[in-house]
Amino acid sequence: MKPVVAIDGPAGSGKGTLARMIASHFNFVYLDTGLLYRTVAFLSIPLIKIRTMGIKELLDTASTLTNEQLRSAGNSARTSDIAKMPEIRDVMTHLQQNFIDLYKKQGTVLDGRDIGTVVVPDACCKLFITADLKERARRRFIDLKDKNTTFDEIFNNIKLRDIQDKSRKIAPLTCDETYIMIDTTDMSVQESFKICREEVKKAFMNSEFRSFV
Ligand code: CDP
Fold first, then answer.
1. Cβ of residue 8 lying under 6 Å from some atom of ligand 1
2. Pairing verdict, β 180-183 and 123-130
3. pTM summary value
4. Cα 42 from Cα 79, distance rounded (Å)
5. Which in 104, 148, 185, 196 has the greatest CB count within 10 A?
């Protein structure tokens, strides 16, 4: 088992916000794995180049890009496309596992689509965060600074990504009995965080990593 909180779920479910709050509360190190895929997609970094990059170099590259560049509807769709490629997923999985190893003394929180299924199936705690499609689109619409994008565009973009992320052959977004499923549709951020925090605490207390919490 690894001292990791694995958080998976669809776009706009609130998993990024919750992952950050959990990391800050327990003093774990946070990795937004979507950011890695978005960076590769935005810069069209070739596979041969990614294979030579360490996780720190890829994170440094990501930090040179703005939220608007990375999270635009166009780059979101492109990201979902490249995320289907097995060779890309393979090298990205290795980078994420290196990150987990690097911070194994402190504990890590990773959020994405295949964290608990592929990247770290033996994570100490696995959370699946979800919410209704309409509510997720509403949240993403409020978040996005680019008001040239309409609610309908965001709704359709998320709907399409949901389908792609769930139906792809390699590492699809899926939830099994090893996850704790949390539906945040009717919850405030604080309410969802309280539930997550308790689940993380319980899982770590019942493991060899009790001293981490
Ligand atoms: O924030 P949001 O949930 O909208 O997306 P994200 O986590 O930044 O991920 C963007 C896209 O990257 C997703 O729609 C997936 O296609 C892909 N992704 C993935 O395949 N595997 C991951 N571990 C993370 C992201």
1. no
2. parallel
3. 0.93
4. 8
5. 196
Task: Give strand pairing partners of 126.
Answer: 6
112-130: pLDDT as tens digits: 999 999 999 999 999 999 9
Q: What is the pLDDT of residues 189-208, one digit of tens each?
A: 999 999 999 999 999 999 99
Domains and CATH numbers, the chain: 2-203 (3.40.50.300)
Whose tokens are 């949901």? That residue is: 162
Measuring from atom 16 of ligand 1, which residue has the nearest CA? 80
Tens-digit pLDDT profile for residues 77-90 = 899 999 999 999 99
Between CA 75 and CA 68 the distance in angstroms is: 9
Tokens of 54: 């360490």
The token pair that represents 1 in the structure block: 């088992």
DSSP β-bridge partners for residue 31:
110
Bridge partner residues of 129 (DSSP): 182
Least Cα distance to 89 among 171, 25, 161, 186 occurs for: 171
If you write DSSP's letter for every residue of 87-102 in order, what string do you get?
Answer: HHHHHHHHHHHHHHHH
Ligand 1 contacts CB of residue 3 (under 6 A)? no
Ligand 1 mean position to 207 CA, how many Å? 29
- 11 within ligand 1 shell (Cβ under 6 A): yes
